[in-house]
Amino acid sequence: MGVNLLRERYRVDLIELQAACEANYARLMRLLPGMREAQCARRVALSQGERQLGVLALEVVESCPYTSTVQVRQEHSLPWLPVPQLEVRVYHDARMAEVTGAQSARRFRGIYPYPNAAMHQPDEKTQLNVFLGEWLSHCLACGHETEPLM
């Protein structure tokens, strides 16, 4: 009996993707409440007990009436680990935030054939938006200001 080598084709779950983008918008607005008025930045330290794990840097690099572009990156990463960096497009009118760039890749498609030359997963776009949500949730739950309040 032969093994069936055909897999079911991946289909985008639009409800899941939109839910992730809506939740990411809410998280970003909690971390950068002044994002719509001006270009702003914030650094959130992440630690476990006395051990500092790194700093999440959020910076609005472009601000328009209905959209903003935010760069999210990890500072003080381990020397052997590539520094995670995401570009996020924030749609204020739709109340959604979507990852549009990661490392050197830009403009992700909804579905990728697999295997492919860039080694993207079939659901790369969804995975990146879920990752952003987990990153921001961790920041909100365990993060603290890098500078002490006066």
Question: What is this structure's SSE topology?
Answer:
Elements: H1 14-31, E1 41-48, E2 51-63, E3 67-75, E4 85-91, E5 96-102, E6 105-106, H2 124-142, E7 143-145
Antiparallel strand pairs: 1-2, 1-7, 2-3, 3-4, 4-5, 5-6
Seen as an oligomer or otherwise, the chain set is single chain
Compute the separation of the termini in Å.
73 Å
Approximately how much helix is present in the residues?
A: 10-25%
Helix tally? Answer: 2
Biggest sheet layout = 7 strands, antiparallel
Q: Give the helices and strands as they follow along the chain.
A: HEEEEEEHE
Structural class: alpha+beta
Q: Beta-sheet strand percentage? A: 25-35%
Supply Rg. Answer: 18 Å
Average pLDDT over all residues:
83
Number of strands: 7
Record the strand order, biggest sheet. 6-5-4-3-2-1-7
Quick structural gist:
The chain has helices at 14-31, 124-142, and strands at 41-48, 51-63, 67-75, 85-91, 96-102, 105-106, 143-145. It has 150 residues and is of the alpha+beta class. Helix 1 runs parallel beside helix 2 (124-142).
Provide a descriptive summary of the structure in words.
The chain is an alpha+beta fold and 150 residues long. The chain has one domain. A 7-stranded antiparallel beta sheet has the order 6-5-4-3-2-1-7. Helix 1 runs parallel beside helix 2. The longest helix is centred in the last third of the chain and has 19 residues. It starts with 13 loop residues before the first helix and ends in a 5-residue tail after the last strand. The model has no long low-confidence stretch (mean pLDDT 83). InterPro entries: DUF1249. It holds the Pfam family DUF1249.
